[in-house]
Recover the amino acids of this structure.
């Protein structure tokens, strides 16, 4: 429990709460980005530099930019927020509460294993080359399946974006 | 209809690969700008360096004096008539006794005003003047001002200064002897 | 000799790099104006100090003394946060760039590099991808249509060109088999071998990377986010005073970093030709110790790297005053239908050549 870990955990929790409680969706997104940064810090503490960098590039750098993009376009604010019926609120509270319950129930009995044993501990496990070897040797099939998934998504996006004959173009 | 032989026939061909790649054109453009980088600069660093006036430049007006330091203007109004921009106004007056050393003719201009905002510096007043009194100086520009009324130049700013050394290069140039006699004339004048 | 802990040395390096980035960015504003003037047959600012060298100072005084203006309905906190973020992200990326090899004093070797991490390239890439937030937040918080449009243009442009940039990088990484910028630099010159800089192995990749670097730093011909003919002033329309200054400054720091990355990745970084020959010549003919000769090489290499960086900065400015701005659809077409496929082809070619053993 180094002070850096405590600080990062504090930032992560606080900004995660900020995501939920912020009134302004743009603030929400910014808090989420801060959360990702705190998580990347955790990865760094775990000596997983590649994961930390990729987390920033992919989540903070690309996905959240698109989020922000859409939110800015939609111009969401308090006035345009749809009024939700009480039933929906209650349902949401019940669903969220039971998720919390499950999480607590699942995690309460876990005993922290503490520091890894010196004999089996490998500080380089999170480095790029090790990760690459694991990905391309042990998990080749899932990796390739995931890339096929991305390919499908890309094809879908191109199909959506393609102009059809006779369609009005702006 | 063909007016000149210089017209170039423009053919719209499909672009070649080099043209479509765009990079050769970029390097061409870069080479052009790089040539300009080493060219002689066109800048005139103004306060230190002044561009020479053109030999036919017509600038700020001056009302000349004659050899004895008397105002030449007789307020005939020909300059005002000649002025296409109607920039000149004047009030004529009769010369009193004892003013012979101030005004050359019996009639003189009590006030003489040129509006420099209206003036187009065409020089027609200079041509119209029968007494060779008004001249456009070749080396002076009407300077910028903040207020409009500051552009109306009265006699205080138009009449040539009495000091013979402050003559403009255009108009009558005094010889040293003439300047000396003028100086002595002025010294005798009652203030 | 004072004994410095490794971390202390690193913090000194980081501080120096930080100061240098700011200094270079400051003088970039001056260089931009002078180069623009020279390319247009003018002389540029030459009044403040000798050759106008104090012009940046005068500009800074002007920037600081201008009115701080907050547009009505603007999100004040984010309005201030935007330029700060742009500046922070611009400054962060230079931390991993190796500005020189090691200096050794006695038993201690010091690296002229902020932090050596084995994901250096990814770090630069990640921070660059964050740079767009400063622009987006600033544009949105201004509560102005044109600012928002400028911000959105900037964001979509950056995202589009990041893809091609990353793909052109992959080809370099395939050759170097590492993400560490220091290792990539060291690979480009090996003692006793005829070794080429990466530009020889990756000409196409370099062109793609260079074009993307222009787009990422929002420089002409890709300066659509601040296209004044269509968007008034782009994302910083509403900004005044030093907040605007920070945005402009961040752009120049980004140029500096982009130039440094290009020098390191493709032009040998702190290596210069015949450095090993020079070192052995000094050791053999002039009785220098190996460490002293190496230190000299390091210093010369750092100077060389900065010369390369300045050359790139000059190139950025040269292009700016040569090429007209792209239209937005041309920009997007270039990014998505030309650069990305080209980058993929480049990866394929590189892979094939590595497989055939032509390049290593």
């Amino acid at each position: 429990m180094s002070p850096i870990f405590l600080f990062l955990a504090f930032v992560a929790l606080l900004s995660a709460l900020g995501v939920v409680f912020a009134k302004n969706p743009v603030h929400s997104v910014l808090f989420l980005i801060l959360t990702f940064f705190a998580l990347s810090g955790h990865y760094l503490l775990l000596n997983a530099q590649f994961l930390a960098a990729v987390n920033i590039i992919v989540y903070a750098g690309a996905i959240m930019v698109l989020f922000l993009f859409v939110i800015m376009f939609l111009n969401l604010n308090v006035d345009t927020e749809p009024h939700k019926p009480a039933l929906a609120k209650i349902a949401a509270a019940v669903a969220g509460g039971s998720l919390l319950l499950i999480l607590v129930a699942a995690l309460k009995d876990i005993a922290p294993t503490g520091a890894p044993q010196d004999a089996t501990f490998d500080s380089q496990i999170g480095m790029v080359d090790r990760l690459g070897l694991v990905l391309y040797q042990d998990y080749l099939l899932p990796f390739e399946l995931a890339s096929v998934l991305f390919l499908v998504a890309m094809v879908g996006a191109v199909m959506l974006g393609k102009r059809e004959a006779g369609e009005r173009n702006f | 209809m063909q007016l000149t032989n210089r017209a170039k026939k423009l053919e719209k061909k499909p672009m070649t690969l080099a043209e479509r790649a765009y990079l050769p054109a970029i390097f061409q453009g870069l080479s052009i700008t790089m040539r300009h980088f080493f060219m002689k600069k066109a800048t005139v660093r103004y306060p230190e360096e002044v561009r020479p006036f053109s030999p036919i430049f017509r600038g700020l007006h001056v009302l000349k004096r004659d050899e004895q330091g008397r105002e030449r203007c007789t307020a005939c109004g020909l300059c005002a008539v000649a002025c296409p921009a109607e920039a000149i106004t004047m009030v004529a007056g009769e010369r009193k006794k004892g003013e012979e050393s101030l005004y050359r003719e019996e009639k003189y201009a009590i006030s003489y005003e040129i509006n420099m905002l209206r003036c187009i510096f065409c020089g027609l007043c200079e041509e119209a003047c029968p007494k060779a009194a008004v001249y456009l100086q070749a080396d002076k520009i009407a300077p910028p001002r903040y207020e409009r009324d500051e552009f109306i130049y009265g006699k205080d700013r138009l009449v040539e200064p009495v000091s013979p050394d402050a003559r403009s290069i255009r108009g009558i140039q005094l010889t040293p002897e003439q300047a000396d006699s003028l100086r002595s004339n002025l010294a005798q004048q009652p203030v | 000799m004072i004994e410095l802990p490794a971390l202390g040395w690193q913090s000194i390096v980081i501080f120096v790099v930080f100061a240098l980035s700011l200094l270079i960015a400051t003088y970039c504003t001056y260089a931009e104006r002078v180069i623009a003037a020279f390319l247009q047959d003018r002389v540029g600012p030459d009044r403040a100090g000798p050759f106008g060298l104090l012009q940046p100072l005068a500009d800074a005084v002007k920037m600081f003394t201008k009115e701080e203006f907050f547009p009505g309905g603007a999100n004040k906190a984010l309005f201030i946060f935007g330029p700060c973020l742009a500046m922070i992200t611009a400054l962060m990326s230079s931390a991993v760039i190796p500005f020189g090899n090691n200096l050794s004093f006695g038993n201690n070797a010091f690296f002229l590099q902020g932090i050596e991490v084995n994901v250096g390239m990814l770090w630069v890439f990640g921070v660059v991808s964050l740079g767009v937030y400063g622009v987006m937040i600033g544009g949105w918080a201004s509560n102005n249509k044109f600012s928002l449009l400028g911000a959105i243009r900037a964001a979509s442009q950056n995202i589009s060109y990041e893809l091609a940039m990353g793909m052109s990088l992959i080809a370099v990484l395939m050759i170097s088999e590492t993400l560490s910028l220091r290792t990539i630099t060291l690979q480009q010159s090996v003692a006793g071998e005829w070794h080429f800089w990466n530009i020889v192995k990756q000409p196409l990749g370099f062109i793609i990377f260079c074009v993307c670097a222009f787009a990422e730093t929002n420089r002409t011909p890709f300066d659509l986010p601040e296209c004044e003919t269509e968007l008034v002033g782009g994302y910083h329309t509403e900004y005044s005073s030093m907040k605007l200054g920070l945005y402009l400054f961040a752009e120049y720091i980004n140029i500096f970093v982009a130039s440094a990355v290009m020098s390191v990745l493709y032009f040998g970084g702190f290596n210069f030709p015949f450095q090993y020959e020079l070192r052995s010549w000094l050791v053999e003919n002039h009785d220098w110790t190996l460490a002293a000769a190496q230190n000299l090489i390091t210093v010369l290499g750092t100077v060389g790297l900065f010369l390369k960086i300045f050359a790139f900065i000059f190139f950025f400015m040269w292009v700016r005053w040569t090429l007209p701005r792209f239209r937005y659809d041309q920009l997007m077409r270039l990014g998505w239908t030309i650069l990305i496929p080209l980058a993929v082809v480049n990866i394929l070619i590189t892979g094939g050549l590595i497989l055939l053993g032509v390049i290593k």
Q: What stands out?
A: Residues 221 and 325 of chain C are 4 Å apart (CA to CA). The mean pLDDT of chain C is 84.
